[in-house]
Structures are given as C-alpha cells and as structure tokens.
Amino acid sequence: MKHRNVYWFLTLVLMLSLLLAACSSGEDTEAQTDADEGETEEEATKEPVDGGTLTYGIDSEPEGILNIHFYGSAVDDEILGFMVDPLIEYDENLEPEPHLATWETEDNKVFTFTFEEGVKWHDGDELTVHDWVFAIETLAHPDYDGPRYTNVQTIEGAEAFNKGEADSISGLEVVNDYEIKVTFDQARVNNLVNVWAYPMHEDYWKDVPVKDMLKDEKSRTKSMGTGPFKMGNVVPGESYELIANEDYWKGAPKLDKVIVKVIDNKTVSGALQNGEIDMISVHPTLGEEIEKLDGVNLVTYPGLSYYYVGFKFGKFDNEKKEIASKNDKYDDLKLRQAMYHAINRQEWIDAFFGGYGSPVNAPVPTSHWIAADESDLTNYEYDPEKAKTLLDEAGFEDTNGDGFRENPDGEEFVVNFSHYATTNPTFESRAKALTQYWNDIGLQTDLQMIEASLYYDKVEKDSDDIEVFFGGWSTGSDPDPTGLWSSETLWNYTRYDNEKSDELLAQALDVEVVGDDQEKRKDIYTEWQQLLNEELPMLYIGELQELVGMNERVGGVKYDVSENNNPNEWYITE
C-alpha cells in the first residue's frame, strides 16, 4: 500500500478535495514529526490466527468514487489502498522501488518497463502492459473528467491525443504483453515518479465510454484491481466489505476480510475501546485520550504535510500564466518577521493538536529527503519583544494611542486574516489564537472565518477579501515544489514572484545540471529553502504526526513516511 501520492503537483489537486473532505468531518489535513514503526514488541510475539476479519474505521463519509483513476478524497483512497497495486512503490526514504514493474533508462527520457508476469486482476484475467496503455489513454482522453491528466501529459504525443489530433499516444510503444517503451517529451529528473503508475483493466472497461466511467457502477460498487483484497458487499456511506484475494501475486492475505466501517468522528475513542473497530487514523487532538485506552495502541509515523500562514502579494492571470498585479501591503520583510516572532508555534501546536507536532521553518516537511538541515535555516523563535523592535524599525508605531500600530505613513493598519470554517469549533479557536499573538505586539487583526466549501476557491481566485490566509499543503514522494512556487503556476497562492526561486526550481529538474545525483539535487533544494526561509512569503507554522489507533489484537501493520505496508501482511491474533 506504500503508494504515496507521487507527484507534488497532483497532490495539490487532491488537497482541495482532501482538505474539504477532512474539514467536513471536523478534521483537517495533518503533517508529521517523529515516527513509530507501528508494530509493538508485544504484538510481534503474538501468533496470527488463521484468517479472521479486521474492522477498519474511517470517520468521514467517502465520496464513493472507488476508482483510482478518478477519486478525489482521502477516505476513498484509504479504501482503494486495499484493492489496487501500483507499478512503483516507495521505501522508507521515499525512493522508488519496483512493484508491478521494473524499469530501465539511459537518458531519463526513454524508459523501458517490464511487467511482472502472472499477476491477475480480481476477475482472473492476467495483467498486461495493454492495461497500462488503456489507463494512460483514459487519463489523456478529451472526455476524461478526473484530476490526473497532469500525470500523463508529459508523455510524448499525449497532448495531441488529448486535443483529438491523434488516435494514439506516440510515446507509448508496446514491445510485447509484458514490456513497453515510454518516451517523454523531454528528459527530466522526475519523469519516473510523476508518470501515472496504475493500470486499468481494459477488458473490464472497454465498453464504457470515458465520459461515463465516473458515474458507472464499476467506479462505485464493482471496483476492479489487482490488490490483496477485492470488493465485496457495499452499503454506500456505511460499510465496505473487502474479501481476501486468494490469487494475489504476492501471496494470499492472512486476513479473510477487511470491513471498512464509517463511524461518527465524535465516537472514535469509544469505538476503539469497545472493539467496534480495530484500527483508524485519528486526529492529534485525540492522541492523549487514545493513549489511555486499555487494549489499544497509539501508533505515530511521519507525514508529509505542513500548515502555514500565507500573504497575498498580488493576483494571478491564469490565461497568461503570470502574476499580473502586485499588492505591497506586506512587502516589508521586517513586518513579516515580526508577525513570525510573535507566534508561539509550539504552544499553538500543543494547544490545538495535543502536542503531536513541532514547528517547521521551510515549506518542506522535515521527514522528506530534500529537507534542509535545521542548522541551515533561521528558526524564528517566539520572541514578542523582538517582534515589537522589528515593527519599530519598520516604522509601524502607535501614533494615536489606541494600542494598535499605524503603518509608516501614519494610516490605520489592520491585518485581515482568513481561515476556513466548519462545524469544528476548534478551527475558529486556533485562528483566534493566531490573531491574539499579533494583537499582543500591537498589530490590529480582524478574523474572517470562511465556509470551507468556498475558502480555497476564494484563495485561488485572489478574492479581494483574502489578504493573509491560513492553509496546509501535502507533498508527495517527488519533492519538486514547482507547482506550488513557480511564478507561472496557479497554485502559487501567495503570488510570490522571485527570479532566483524559479531558477533554482528549474535547475533541480535539469538533467544537464543534476543528472542522477540526488545529493546535488538536494543541495539545490536546500538553497531554495534557505531563500524562502529568509524572504518569508509565508510563515511556516508546523508539521504534525500522523496517528493511528490500533487494537492490540492487530499485528503485522507497519508505518513509515511512505505510509503503511501491504495489507496482505496484516493479521489478527485472537
């Protein structure tokens, strides 16, 4: 199941759905710090029973799109993880490793993939490279209405196929049923980890037009994969039965079944305690409570997400793909530094996430292999007196005696801060905590809580009422942050426009510059992180641990930064 979202840019597409899906359940996207392997010493000594059923809880209702090529929510992905296999998996260092296929390349432009022979779809048909070609052509089809065209568009000929100018994708050359040559439009360091890595059973889908695939029952209750479990009975929005695939190519699962059960997020602890569920991903605010439960272990492991406070420096013209206008209200670096020093980040994490996290000083989670060493970054420690001094130096002074500072021109200065709103009351509380930090150094701050379903649309479209905003992003196995930070991309939400930043991002992908030298690539990303740590286009707040509550009877489950191990290794001990 170790198939971390492998393309940062794709992750951004998913995060809109993921954030909102999480928020709708009173949850939020999470991040990380230190890890726990998942299986305790006591569990490792227990013998698995023969078969049995594991109940896996999710505390948010799935969208019900159980098709890896179309899904958009994190909870749908949790269910899909039991049923699908990728061509590539990732190790604990986020390095790609063969799964359904191996690969070779001499130039990072042309790759030859060789598929594992004898792998069976759940209906007994054999997997071949034709199923991968079918998947890529589906994602590149003009009628495809999912979010993953970005993962195939760099294949030579995909754009022409997408525009209806070609009947096939020229960069796909089938050698035989188990070997295929893929040519990309240009050599890139990250072509391998960016390409779509999931086949699609051609014979199963060939009679369904692409425009009808998403609404077809095969995407809802009759999912087809090659993974360790296959779809059983589905009660949409309530439960999903997953039956062991006895013909699984890596060996039959130890479990007979997994029942994915939807529960109310307010009942997570009780459901774990009374055995209603065996395991579930949990919000950090529940961590301390779950640690106290009898017969339940709290497993923590590194995630790849972070929270931030962003500044709007301009507006983006999506047709011209450029930042078209500037907003200079927060141009003064000392102002941004002061706002950063005013925040007690660890106190904030302790108060609103149970302490399961730590501050982060750059837009890369510290568990990622490209993360700059902390010694290479400035740590903006909580220091309200220093914050006040910086504001004095920048000319922000209280000239009328009302307790709040005016701008250097003597005009009223108000930090207009926005945060998304849900039924979870802690969201407003944590937003107010940030405004209080700024009020305490004399910066008058007004808070705007915006309905979650509208929030990111307003941020993306540079709504006039979005000025300083709260957000979170998740990264993938490939570290390339171009989709978030290039001055030519829509998801550069701060509208940060820096020539040096763009240059470094391009160098880190240039085969002529870095070749296959990962250390050289990391050095470039470290320099890029240092730049963003100095210029502060956003205030990097914190990264959290990922938490899983797990009944002691569950064994064989392991976690690391690449997520969990293959569920065919999981078992129960009673």
Automatic annotation (TrEMBL):
Domain of life: Bacteria
UniProt keyword Signal, yes or no: yes
Residues of the Solute-binding protein family domain: 95-487
Alphabetical list of SUPFAM superfamilies matching this protein: Periplasmic binding protein-like II (SSF53850)
Region (Disordered): 29-53
UniProt biased composition (Acidic residues): 29-42
Annotated transmembrane regions: none
InterPro entries referenced in this protein's UniProt entry, alphabetically: Opp4A, Peptide/Ni-bd, SBP_5, SBP_5_dom
Pfam families: SBP_bac_5 (PF00496)
Protein keywords: Signal, Transport
Endpoints of the signal sequence: 1-21
Family: Belongs to the bacterial solute-binding protein 5 family.
UniProt-recorded name of the protein: Oligopeptide ABC transporter substrate-binding protein
